[in-house]
Amino acid sequence: MFKEALRPVWAEINLSNFDYNVKNIKAKMGEGREFIGVIKADGYGHGAVKLAEVLRENDVKTFAIATLHEAIELRDAGAKERIICLGLTPDMYADTIVEYDITPVVCESGNAKAISDAAAAAGKTVEALIAVDTGMGRIGYLADDLDYAVEDVKKISQLSNLKIWGLFSHMATADAYDKTFSHQQEAKYNKFYEALTAAGVEIPTRTLANSASIMEIPSVHFDACRPGIILYGQYPSHEVDKAELDIKPVMEVKANIVHLKDVPVGFSCGYGRKFIAERPSRIATIALGYADGYPRPYSAQAKVIVNGVVCPVAGNICMDQCMIDVTDVPEVKVGDEVIVMGSDGVNTIDADYIADCTGTINYEICCAFGQRLPKVYIR
Hints:
- The chain is of the alpha/beta class.
- The protein has two domains: 15-235, TIM Barrel, CATH 3.20.20.10; 251-349, Lyase, Ornithine Decarboxylase, Chain A, domain 1 (Beta Barrel), CATH 2.40.37.
- Helix content is 30%, strand content 26%.
- The radius of gyration is 24 Å and the shape is elongated.
- The two termini are 17 Å apart.
- The mean pLDDT is 97.
């Protein structure tokens, strides 16, 4: 139990494992490429500020986030590195981009001009990424609308206080067995880049590779790669070849038993009485619930590890607590540690298992646990 957590439940973040992953990803990317550490969503729930420290120790000079709030948090914590905001920034926040020296993503000359004007007013110059939509359907110039896009990017290239740092796009299916669509995206990206350079627009940095394509599509590594989920020791999907990259999970979720009771046959637990004891049972309570990211739809399949024994959750997960059937755990007592997500060296409950049981992805599981749980960092 960690008193500083102020709760008998916590997300345990292993910074040594994070460091291990960074080093292995760097080796996979190869020499001479910019490592853009994607630490958006508070480092996928792991704590962006602490992770930035480890990235810095590994000579990573560029971070990527999704919102201005995330960028400001890093700056307020002392980050001097380039910080890319991967989401679009409306004109009204152009002054914030300038004030905090953020590298924005742009895909419209009017928006770029608003940022350039704000930079001029502050006596600064902003560097920006041009976004091209090669098939994700999210943001960016349509890759197939070259005539309009090239003319509009040329306008951006002529702005006095905004300079183009690079060209950005995002892979939609790089984590699938079938890489056909990924290579179509690659071709569109290359065609767009070639059209810009032919029009006299300088693009110093090309970045397309996400986690899955770092692992399996070396032809899109270009000048800079953007590792995300693999930083945290999670694979992008069940379809990637794990042999391509050795990584270790960075987050475990643990709790302490706060209450124990012995109950008779027929005793029920939780909302809806989904658990009814079929034998005299011992029920433990932990202070973890769906408000902490422990998904309620997981209830029927949820399991935890207590003193080396895999135990089922008893009934529906509540908002702030849940119950566990620890009948088969010898000499269990209040204060014993419960592994909610992680491993005791023999038994493992990982983010993929929880995600598979709830119809989602490991990204969401980690992000959700990171929202309210106190974080304890270990080396």
